[in-house]
Amino acid sequence: QVQLVESGGGLVQAGGSLRLSCAASGTFFAINTMGWYRQAPGKQRELVALITRGGSTNYADSVKDRFTVSRDNTKNTVYLQMNSLKPEDTAVYYCAARPFIPSIDYWGQGTQVTVSS
Question: Has residue 52 got a pLDDT over 90?
């Protein structure tokens, strides 16, 4: 079992920055992939950014060059640095983690990010 606790959401003006954190705890050998998804009202959940244990990253086109995902494997923590925020980035952001064993996705409870224009 993996428990994920997110922090760092909030209200920010357009052009501002926020940093999200997500710490994993529980009983597991090691986490392979960690990352972030988001869901805006009336829309489906979408990928924001993923990072593997080795540091390979994958970003949604809409956040490339603005968001940076990173992780600290010693702390089982993943971060999302969000710069140049836009109103369309407003959503609930969910942390996700997939251990090597079992290879299934675990989810955090979500943290609200609101960007005002």
Answer: yes
